Recover the amino acids of this structure.
C-alpha cells in the first residue's frame, strides 16, 4: 500500500504555479507514495468563537490531514511570507490545542515563485510556524523553484528539464524520508 500524502496548495488562483508544481510532484512520485492535491477553496476563516461547534468544512479538512500519512505544502510567497489562505488553513488544522491534525505527520515544504528567490522566505516562515504542530520536517534536500512562470506549457506540464529533475529528486527524497519515519515509529 502506498503512503498517502496530502499536497496542500497555498494559492486559490485557477492557473496557480503552485497548483502546477503540486501536480508535477504527484506525477513524479514513486510507487511508494500516492499524492492527492488539496486546494483550500471554500475553507472558511478560522474564528475562535466557532471552536466549540466547528464548521463542517474545518472538520472535513482536519479529517483529510488525519487520514494522510504525510503532508507536502506547495507555497507561493506573498510579501515575504505565506499567503493568508494558507495561514488560515494551518490555524484551522492546528486546533484544538494539543490536537493538531498534523501531529506526527512527516512534512515537506516546497517554495516556488516566478521571481529569482523561489519563495524561500515563505518556505522558512512556514517551517517556523509548523515546527511545533507537526512531525518531522524534511530539512534536506530543500526545494525553492525559481522562475516558475517560464517552466510550464499551456497544458500545465513542466517544460524545463532542470525543473523536472529537481522535482523528481525531491519527491524521491521525500518518499525515503516518509519510509524512515514510518520505520522509526513502528
Ligand atoms: C499579494 C502578493 C504579494 C507577493 N509577494 C511576493 C514576494 O514576496 N515574493 C515573491 O517572490 N513573489 C511575490 N508575489 C508574486 C507571486 O509569487 C506570484 O503572484 C505567484 O504567481 C503567486 O503564486 P501562484 O502562481 O501559485 O498563485 C506576490 C504576489 C501577490 C499577489
Amino acid at each position: 500500500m502506498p503512503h498517502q500524502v496530502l499536497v496542500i496548495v497555498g494559492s486559490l488562483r485557477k492557473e496557480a504555479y503552485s497548483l502546477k508544481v503540486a501536480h508535477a510532484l504527484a506525477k513524479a512520485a514513486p510507487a511508494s507514495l500516492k499524492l492527492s492535491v488539496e486546494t483550500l477553496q471554500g475553507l472558511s476563516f478560522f474564528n475562535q468563537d466557532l471552536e466549540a461547534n466547528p464548521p463542517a468544512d474545518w472538520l472535513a479538512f482536519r479529517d483529510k490531514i488525519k487520514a494522510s500519512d504525510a503532508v507536502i505544502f506547495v507555497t507561493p510567497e506573498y510579501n515575504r511570507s505565506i499567503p493568508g489562505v494558507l495561514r488560515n488553513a494551518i490555524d484551522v488544522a492546528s486546533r484544538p490545542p494539543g490536537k493538531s491534525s498534523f501531529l506526527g505527520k512527516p512534512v515537506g515544504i516546497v517554495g516556488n515563485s516566478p521571481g529569482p528567490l523561489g519563495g524561500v522566505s515563505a518556505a522558512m516562515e512556514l517551517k517556523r510556524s509548523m515546527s511545533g504542530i507537526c512531525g518531522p520536517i524534511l530539512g534536506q534536500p530543500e526545494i525553492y523553484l525559481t522562475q516558475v512562470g517560464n517552466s510550464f506549457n499551456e497544458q500545465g506540464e513542466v517544460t524545463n528539464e532542470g525543473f523536472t529533475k529537481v522535482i523528481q529528486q525531491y519527491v524521491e527524497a521525500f518518499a525515503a524520508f516518509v519510509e524512515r519515519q514510518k520505520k522509526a515509529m513502528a
